[in-house]
Amino acid sequence: MALATQQVQDQAGTPRISADRVREILIVDDHPLMCDALALTLKISFGLKNVRTARSLASAQEQIRSQGVPDAVILDLNLPDARGSEGLVTLRRQIPGVPITMISADLENAMISAAMAAGAQGYISKSLGREALVDSLRRMWDGERVTPDSYEPESAGEDDAARVELARRFSSLTPQQMKILRLICQGKANKEISYELSIAEATVKTHITAIMSKINARRRTQAVLLANSVRLFAPT
């Protein structure tokens, strides 16, 4: 598959990282065969000795805390504990300066747009061949934003800036607040959320107030619409 690219720069005006400086990678994917095959490909193609793997978002977060920050991350779109852009938003908060590549079989335009707005360095298909995959990652690590050639980005402007800002707001939520927002998006009432998370209903209400303030929403329905607009929680 051909890929479209766009140069991206950080606030200082220089690429975030260069491919020859990537020495340690974390792959987050719950499919063992896919994860192991990708790790082997990266070790051979880039001469890497340390390719770490994690099967869930929580495992990835714990590994980053215990083993340190990797030079780059390859993140599956749908994990057992995070579906949609939630994993990306969560890791972006924990490792803001690390390039994160989303990898998925889902090439829906809206999903790619949401991931890129949430801070992905690139978005690639799981069906890519070895050479295309390696080339895509090399260019991402050299500072390009890489998306599938079939992707049709919406025209840049106020809407694009709004999506980026909204993703930034969601990244300010604590892990507990993100769990509560996910349950709100599932239509759960406060009492149900309280039972599921084993916390007091008053605590749920306090968290919801904080969530609404952070994402600038006045009602639960508005919070759900905002979460859906950036594909924060992909449907199961």
From TrEMBL:
<keyword id="KW-0238">DNA-binding</keyword>
<dbReference type="InterPro" id="IPR011006">
    <property type="entry name" value="CheY-like_superfamily"/>
</dbReference>
<feature type="domain" description="HTH luxR-type">
    <location>
        <begin position="166"/>
        <end position="231"/>
    </location>
</feature>
<keyword id="KW-0597">Phosphoprotein</keyword>
<protein>
    <submittedName>
        <fullName>LuxR family two component transcriptional regulator</fullName>
    </submittedName>
</protein>
<dbReference type="InterPro" id="IPR058245">
    <property type="entry name" value="NreC/VraR/RcsB-like_REC"/>
</dbReference>
<dbReference type="Pfam" id="PF00196">
    <property type="entry name" value="GerE"/>
</dbReference>
<feature type="domain" description="Response regulatory">
    <location>
        <begin position="24"/>
        <end position="141"/>
    </location>
</feature>
<dbReference type="Pfam" id="PF00072">
    <property type="entry name" value="Response_reg"/>
</dbReference>
<dbReference type="InterPro" id="IPR016032">
    <property type="entry name" value="Sig_transdc_resp-reg_C-effctor"/>
</dbReference>
<dbReference type="GO" id="GO:0000160">
    <property type="term" value="P:phosphorelay signal transduction system"/>
</dbReference>
<dbReference type="InterPro" id="IPR000792">
    <property type="entry name" value="Tscrpt_reg_LuxR_C"/>
</dbReference>
<feature type="modified residue" description="4-aspartylphosphate">
    <location>
        <position position="76"/>
    </location>
</feature>
<dbReference type="GO" id="GO:0006355">
    <property type="term" value="P:regulation of DNA-templated transcription"/>
</dbReference>
<dbReference type="InterPro" id="IPR001789">
    <property type="entry name" value="Sig_transdc_resp-reg_receiver"/>
</dbReference>
<dbReference type="GO" id="GO:0003677">
    <property type="term" value="F:DNA binding"/>
</dbReference>
<dbReference type="InterPro" id="IPR051015">
    <property type="entry name" value="EvgA-like"/>
</dbReference>
